[in-house]
Amino acid sequence: MAIAWTTTIISSTIIIMLFSSATTAQTNNDNGGKPKRTHFIVEACKNASINSSEYRHVTKEFCVSTLQQDKRSDEAKDLHDLALIGVDILKGHIIAASGKVKEMMHSAMNGTSTAQRLRLCEMDYDAAVTILKVCNTMLKDYRGPKGGEKVGPPSFYLPDCVDKASGFVNYCEHELVDMPGQEALYKESIELCKLGDLNVALMQPYWDFTQN
Ligand SMILES: *[C@@H]1O[C@H](CO)[C@@H](O)[C@H](O)[C@H]1NC(C)=O
Ligand SMILES: *[C@@H]1O[C@H](CO)[C@@H](O)[C@H](O)[C@H]1NC(C)=O
Ligand SMILES: *[C@@H]1O[C@H](CO)[C@@H](O)[C@H](O)[C@H]1NC(C)=O
């Protein structure tokens, strides 16, 4: 009898626990659609991670935390919105890093290899920023693949564009490697390369001529 009682109590407790967690889940989903949007970022980032190359691998976690730096991500309704945010985040970080390179150039002796490499890095960053402005405009002009090519860019231009910008960021990283006294700038360039990889991976679906 006592055992039966205990079993009943435990079963009821489990049922109550199951019920309350179901209720919590329900409440979360109805919360103005917000968790749903977070879910969308996670979905897109999962895809980006799957589609990133082995050599330039992007984790889902890095992708999500990066895109969430911009609060517009919460409002993103499709990959196009997220791609635009990714491009803007990358551009902002490169501009900041470029400012530090410029500062470092003031103290570098003219004619030294340090000055020369910093100058090249500065040019690489400036080129990447210019290209990203083109990518941003292309994304804004994008009208989809079907019949969109007359008024907007073809979809494969979009990942191609961010890939080109990333290429220049990579050049700078190459300039700064093993450069004494420039370890902080080098570390930053590695982070920028990772951000570039993220943008490239996120936009992989645009390579698919039939889908977009
Ligand atoms: C993720 O990829 C799958 C398979 O390609 C696709 O069906 C889905 O729409 C993608 N999700 C997002 C959020 O892009
Ligand atoms: C990966 O990219 C390809 C295009 O290169 C696209 O067709 C595919 O849907 C993408 N996969 C995911 C999971 O997003
Ligand atoms: C390097 O040369 C430029 C002009 O060519 C000059 O403006 C700058 O002050 C010089 N920097 C140093 C550290 O000598």
UniProtKB/TrEMBL annotation:
Record's signal peptide: 1-25
Domain of life from the UniProt record: Eukaryota
Pfam families reported for this sequence: PMEI
GO molecular function: enzyme inhibitor activity
Keywords carried by this UniProt record: Disulfide bond, Signal
Residues in Pectinesterase inhibitor domain copies: 40-135
Family, similarity comment: Belongs to the PMEI family.
NCBIfam families xrefs: PME_inhib (TIGR01614)
Protein's recorded name: Pectinesterase inhibitor domain-containing protein
Organism annotation: Triticum turgidum subsp. durum
